């Protein structure tokens, strides 16, 4: 089953995605905008990572595609099935594809899947403070709320940056749909 946005299709990661995911995993410009630790990785490690993705019921990762072109990854991880929430993140790889609404459509597709299909109550995420495009996509366009700040959390570009904690509830999502008629 694929997850459909207005334009994007989120599908399972496949072995043939490995070369491009490997290239992105080794691209410093991409990882400056994302949380977590990043080290150079091999193509073999990327293939192993893809193969392991279906093993955990608490983590789901998807390929973001448009017209069959792989553009990035999205996820629902740290899924808490009892309390009905998860952490969400995404990455758009090609620089030329950013700023075209792909991230917004991906976030909307993930929210529809999480809230309307899986019955989740909330999603959370975090953004490195200098990543203004992500903050605008989540908070300005997709209805997420800034819920907190962890000071000096990420070390990037020779300095420390705050971690912005954001979240969205099922009610926030449905109120956004009432205002924007996104899926109409």
Automatic annotation (TrEMBL):
Pfam families: Acetyltransf_3 (PF13302). Residues 8-167 form the N-acetyltransferase domain. Transmembrane segments: none annotated. This is GNAT family N-acetyltransferase. Gene3D superfamilies: 3.40.630.30.
């Amino acid at each position: 089953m694929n997850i459909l946005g207005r334009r994007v299709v989120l599908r399972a990661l496949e072995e043939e995605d490995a070369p491009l995911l490997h290239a992105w995993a080794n691209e410093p410009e991409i990882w400056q905008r994302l949380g977590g630790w990043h080290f150079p990785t091999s193509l073999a490690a990327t293939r192993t990572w893809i193969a392991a993705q279906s093993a955990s019921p608490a983590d789901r990762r998807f390929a973001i595609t448009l017209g069959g072109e792989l553009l990035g990854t999205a996820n629902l991880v740290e899924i808490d099935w009892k309390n009905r929430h998860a952490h969400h993140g995404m990455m758009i790889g090609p620089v030329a594809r950013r700023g075209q609404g792909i991230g917004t459509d991906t976030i909307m597709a993930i929210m529809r899947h999480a809230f309307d299909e899986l019955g989740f109550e909330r999603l959370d995420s975090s953004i490195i403070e200098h990543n203004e495009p992500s903050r605008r996509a989540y908070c300005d366009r997709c209805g997420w709320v800034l819920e907190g700040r962890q000071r000096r959390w990420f070390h990037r570009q020779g300095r420390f940056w705050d971690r912005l904690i954001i979240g969205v509830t099922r009610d926030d999502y449905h109120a956004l749909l009432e205002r924007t008629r996104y899926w109409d």
